[in-house]
Design a protein that fits this description.
Number of helices: 27
Shape: elongated
Structural class: alpha/beta
């Protein structure tokens, strides 16, 4: 038995409606089910979803105050006033800067950009930066990807006579900032039909409005910022990213092209994953360690040599960032584990922690502990704590923090993520308040969930079906990559792979057909030893097409597994026995029937069982280390405990040979010698008997004991004397003989039965109320 790591949530499509949709759109039923869940239920929605080239994005003047913003910017250009684009240090921020700066330069504006330093200024507008801009002669500031929450700073700008246009997409506060214009999808007076644009999307709409037409050559930048910021990939965002990916493949921004080459990314095959796992982390990295200007410079340059220099600087920063994340995550987990009570919200801090990478650390803590996590670095000089938070679906982090804004000096974010700054002395109170906010969460809220698209039959997993799935891309928020459930699979050829053997490779087989499917699981190599050959495994994962030597095959990326039944593991080989002895499993109990075996397992949780089994054992894993004299003991133990996993060793790895029972001729020869040379000194003659007849000492002692048991002879003063025997007696009348036969029969069955026979025997004890006797094992029943 293996419990799934995640809670599996399966949203079943309504069969009747899916069938109707399939007929209406003339598509397959599986595809219809996928679209129905994505609310693609009309021909128009279908056409827009799959054919973006037929559609235009929304009119930018549907934004409230867009006309005011355009008029003020054009006035500044006409009067040759200085414009400052005030950005942010993440990938969404720097792409927003690049989009608007390229537009302004095209229009002949006197424009430059400014990115606040994450470490000295923090996120968003600040009074000092605005004062400096005013002193340097800046007439107009345009914020991109920030500014909506900076009410006090905007009021200050107005007081010093500095015009500001705010473009942002973050959660607005109860009132709009005092600015010349506020361009925001959620502006209360806006008629814009889509409110999930990224910061770069809003900047693009402003550029569109300024130019009078879409600057489609900038859509690769829009795609990068949109995917990087994890906004909803539906509606207009889907359109922008689809077209942006096409631009990325066919005519990418010079800086992006050089950065992709440095990262060994093939832009001609670019997908949303190229952005999410390749370009975006690098653009983010430079601002996590210091000033983010090089990232914006890279996206703005037209000089290939400058682009190469900047790309190398950014790539090096990304490598450094990765190591800092590893080190800080380790420290954060140590601090969490040291707490007496984990709590429902994790708040952890440390002096000198690099605040630029704490969002990544928080994400890792959420992944490990399935709890909202806030990670902060404390400046030992100022006593100020800065950091980031990440959350789980059941906990709205922004709302929870917003209720206690008075404890913080700066704060902003989304339901699932936030950035915050506060005096370190307020940390304890903030943690207490957040624990109170999370107090109503139930235990199941903390179990990470996987949204599973459909149950699917292995026979239905084909290259053509997966090709249909890939048309649903780009995948992201609100359009997740489909995850499928395959039930009752058998795994074949399962093995560890990778340099550190932490990954898994296997083949899924279906019981009801000859269908197979290659599968790979990253970071789950430990499952190789936890899945038995007979297990019926439920597997969830993502489907893809693997192409090798021009041969295309379906492949599954395993994300989670479960086995809903008990399992049997054969560890009779020396290698397997050594492996499990090295494992430390609290829920594992070793059953020993001999004292010598128990002595070798002194550092393991073990029980020595004599002829009667009376122990009250509760354990998930049961290991039979050696062999009992009576096989019924094994049956009794299994029936009583019914463990989730059974391991059978039976002393096999120690070279435990099965002795042969001497035949009747051997008994006759020994008896004849005893009778002829009585009184017979057995110990003295044993070496000579072993040499002459090839018997071993155990066989000689056994035959002698049978003679004693049948009263053919007796031992006096170390010598055997033959008794006067009246009548003949058969050897099998001897209890000693019967016990030896039973022992050898048991050993043969336990040591030489194949896995299938052992499994069938154990199954009869685990799953039925009628238990077989030892003879049934021999027949594999």
């Amino acid at each position: 038995m293996i419990d799934s790591k995640y809670l599996w949530n399966i949203e079943e499509a309504e069969e009747e409606k899916a069938v109707q949709l399939a007929e209406q759109l003339k598509i397959s039923l599986p595809l219809a089910k996928l679209l129905w869940k994505r609310k693609i239920t009309t021909q128009g929605q279908f056409d827009k979803f799959f054919h973006p080239e037929k559609y235009q994005s929304y009119d930018p003047f549907l934004f409230a105050e867009m006309d005011v913003a355009v008029a003020r910017i054009k006035q500044a250009i006409e009067l040759e006033q200085q414009i400052l684009v005030y950005g942010d240090y993440d990938a969404d921020g720097v792409t927003s800067i690049a989009v608007l700066m390229k537009t302004l330069r095209h229009l002949g504006a006197n424009a430059d950009f400014y990115i606040p330093n994450r470490f000295t200024e923090g996120y968003g507008p600040n009074v000092a930066a605005f004062d400096m801009a005013k002193k340097q002669g800046i007439d107009l500031i345009i914020t991109v990807d920030n500014g909506i929450a900076a009410l006090e700073v905007m009021t200050h700008a107005k007081e010093i006579g500095l015009d500001v246009i705010v473009t942002d997409h973050h959660e607005p506060r109860e009132v709009m900032p005092e600015a010349v214009a506020v361009i925001h999808p959620k502006h209360p007076n806006s008629a814009y039909p889509f409110d999930e644009l990224a910061g770069v999307g809003v900047a693009y709409k402003l550029s569109h409005a300024l130019l009078g037409e879409e600057p489609k050559e900038l859509l690769d930048l829009v795609a990068v910022g949109t995917v990087a910021d994890l906004v909803s990939l539906t509606d207009e965002n889907r359109l922008l990213v689809q077209l942006g990916l096409r631009q990325l493949r066919e005519g990418a921004n010079i800086g992006l092209g050089v950065l992709a080459k440095k990262a060994s990314l093939k832009l001609e095959e670019a997908t949303e994953e190229t952005i999410g796992f390749g370009l975006a982390p690098r653009l983010n990295a430079i601002g996590r360690l210091g000033p983010a200007d090089p990232a914006a410079d890279l996206l703005l340059t037209e000089d290939p040599e400058e682009a190469l220099f900047l790309a190398e600087e950014i790539d090096d920063a990304n490598k450094e960032r990765k190591q800092i994340v590893v080190d800080t995550t380790k420290l954060a987990m140590e601090a969490i584990e040291a707490k007496d009570n984990l709590g429902k919200v994790l708040v952890v801090s440390g002096e000198g922690w690099n605040t630029g990478i704490l969002g990544i650390v928080a994400s890792k803590l959420v992944s490990v502990y399935s709890r909202p996590a806030i990670v902060l670095g404390i400046d030992s000089v100022t006593g100020i704590a800065k950091g980031s938070g990440r959350s789980i679906e059941s906990f709205h982090l922004y709302q929870a923090l917003d209720k206690h804004r008075d404890l913080m000096t700066a704060f902003g974010g989304h339901p699932m993520a936030a950035g915050l700054t506060l005096p370190a002395e307020n940390l304890a109170e903030l943690e207490l308040k957040l624990q109170e906010e999370a107090s109503l969460l139930a235990e199941e809220d903390f179990r990470p969930a996987l949204k599973i698209e459909e149950r699917i039959n292995l026979a239905d997993v084909t290259v053509s079906f997966i090709a249909q799935l890939e048309k649903l891309a780009p995948f992201g928020m609100d359009n997740p990559k489909p995850i499928f459930l395959l039930e009752g699979m058998h795994l074949k050829g399962t093995k560890r792979i990778g340099a550190d053997k932490t990954h898994l490779k296997t083949m899924l087989e279906a019981k009801e057909s000859d269908a197979t499917l290659d599968a790979i699981g990253f970071g789950v190599g430990d499952l190789v030893e936890k899945i038995s050959p007979s297990a019926d495994v439920d597997v969830v994962g993502e489907l893809s097409i693997n192409e090798w030597n021009n041969i295309k095959k379906p492949q599954l990326r395993m994300m989670d597994v479960r086995i809903p039944h008990w399992q049997l593991f054969d560890v009779r080989s020396k290698t397997e026995w050594s492996r499990i002895l090295q494992e430390k499993v609290d829920s594992r109990t070793y059953i020993c029937f001999e004292e010598r075996t128990a002595a070798t397992l002194s550092n393991q949780n073990h029980i020595l069982v004599d002829s009667d089994f009376k122990a009250n054992i509760q354990t998930e894993e049961l290991v039979f280390a050696d062999i009992p004299a009576n096989i019924d003991l094994i049956e009794e133990i299994v029936r009583e405990i019914k463990p989730a996993r059974i391991f059978v060793h039976f002393d096999a790895a120690e070279g435990n040979q099965i002795p042969a029972i001497p035949d009747r001729k051997a008994f006759a020869e020994l008896y004849s010698l005893i009778k002829k040379f009585q009184p017979f000194p057995l110990e003295k003659y044993t070496p000579r008997l072993m040499q002459k007849f090839g018997w071993n000492k155990e066989q000689i002692d056994f035959m002698s004991n049978v003679f004693f048991d049948l009263e053919f002879a007796k031992m006096e003063s170390g010598q055997i004397i033959v008794n006067q025997v009246v009548g003949k007696r058969n050897l099998d009348e001897s209890l000693v003989y019967q016990q030896k036969v039973a022992e050898i029969t048991t050993r043969k069955k336990l040591l030489y039965s194949n896995y299938s026979e052992l499994h069938s025997w154990m199954k009869s004890m685990m799953e039925t109320s009628i238990y077989p006797n030892a003879e049934e094992l021999e027949n594999g029943n």
